[in-house]
Amino acid sequence: MNDKVYIDFPGRIVLIGFGSIGQGVLPLILRHIGIQPARISIVTADERGKQVAAEYGVKFVQEALTRENFRRILDANVGRGDFVLNVSVDVSSIALVKYCWERGAMYLDTCIEPWAGGYTSPTISIAKRTNYALREEAIALKAGSAKQPTAIITHGANPGMVSHFVKQALLNIAADLGVEAAPARRDDWAKLARKLGVTTIHIAERDTQVSSRPKRINEFVNTWSVDGFVGEGSQPAELGWGTHERNFPRDGKRHDFGCGAAIYLTQPGAATRVRTWTPKAQNFMGYLITHGESISIADYLTVKEGIEPVYRPTVHYAYHPSDAAVLSVHELQGRNWQLQDSTRIMMDDIVSGTDELGVLLAGHKKNAYWYGSQLSVEEARRLAPHNQATSLQVTVSCLAGMVWAMENPNRGLLEPDDLDHRSLLAVCMPYLGTVTGEYTDWTPLSDRERLFPEDIDKSDPWQFKNVRVF
């Protein structure tokens, strides 16, 4: 057991939201950050986790934060030198970042969250419901924020930790190909990816955790936030769009604002499937769920000549959740994206399974390389209370981001890609199970057209056209 205290923190910590991630990160904070429980507060919309808060002796405030009341509720608990960890839904990340800067507090979240309805309201245009639009609004705060309290956005497992996996994977591939690599700045990382020939990056995840309780009709079951998964699954599918791509999707749309690194499809991510590969699962089909890392990694690894991009990889999430969650999504789609009447997060009822989360970098001389975490539910439970395999990968990344921010308290707004991947992974590694890298000769064309002819681009197996499942 790793009981290292990384930093003594003299301020207060406020957790907004206390679902599976909030409950899982609390014991890690108390184990690895020097702080007394009396200086930690929970602010959440419902009673979930109340007993866990009592177990650790932290303050529990049950009140939903809204546009109208969030300042009044937080003012008593947030001041100069404090830390706000936002693991909620329906509470605006941008509003909280601005508020924390006004109060002199640090901030971290796991995704850029809008106020309620921001993901799915039909009164908001499709383009504005994308993570691309949310990210553009957030990173606009970077200008002039360099001396503000550190605010790290999108630092869960993914988005978050996977950006650090990408950097380590690039270094591993470079070493194996005999390519000299000592990247120090953003441009260096982008030029390294280009030199290696990486054209495609999948955030490839397969969750095989199984519950002792079968999914019931009219029930949505997941291994992490149901509201969070349904919200992002209902958003348009999004991906970083590579400069090598020759076949623009028929349902694809470009944005007329911002960095231009990504596109979106005019259909929900949870209705869009793509082919991918992980070492344990081998080849499988996942959902192309929109995630911040699909945009930030593509943007970070862009090489430009003047204002024109001459290199950028295609980047997207390919997620096969637990089998119970797949059935839940299938039912949700049949209900025309109206959430089921009953929801459940799998936790103590999980009897077996692994969450295999990593990054698949493809197109280089060794074809494709997956690097990431293979964490079983049994090991997750042994490593940290109130966690299973999926939650622990997220909660330890939250912890790592908090430690980094406390060590670097006045760096303004940052994304995971802006951080030192080595120091962040050093905190995460003891909690990730088996962390491994593996090459594969699999491509999206492997064993294709065995039963029927298909419209595929055989000149480049890693074209998005070949990855997407129609």
Describe, in short, the structure shown:
The protein has 470 residues and is of the alpha/beta class. It has helices at 20-32, 50-56, 70-75, 93-103, 131-139, 161-177, 186-196, 226-234, 292-300, 323-334, 377-383, 389-407, 421-428, 464-467; strands at 7-8, 13-16, 33-34, 40-44, 59-62, 83-86, 106-109, 151-152, 200-207, 210-211, 219-222, 236-240, 252-254, 262-268, 273-278, 282-287, 303-305, 308-311, 314-320, 342-345, 350-352, 354-364, 367-376, 413-414, 434-440, 468-469.
Describe the largest sheet.
7 strands, parallel
Number of strands: 26
Query: What share of the residues does DSSP label as strand, in percent?
Result: 25-35%
CATH architecture of the largest domain: 2-Layer Sandwich
- Uncertain spans, ≥5 residues at pLDDT below 50? none
Look at the structure and give the CATH class of the largest domain.
Alpha Beta
End-to-end span in angstroms? Answer: 46 Å
* Helix vs. strand class: alpha/beta
With helices defined by DSSP (H or I, 4 residues minimum), what is the helix count?
14
Give the domain tally.
2
Shape: globular
As for the CATH topology of the largest domain, it is Dihydrodipicolinate Reductase, domain 2
Rg, Cα atoms, Å: 21 Å
Lateral arrangement of strands in the main beta sheet: 5-4-2-6-7-8-24
The CATH superfamily of the largest domain turns out to be homospermidine synthase like
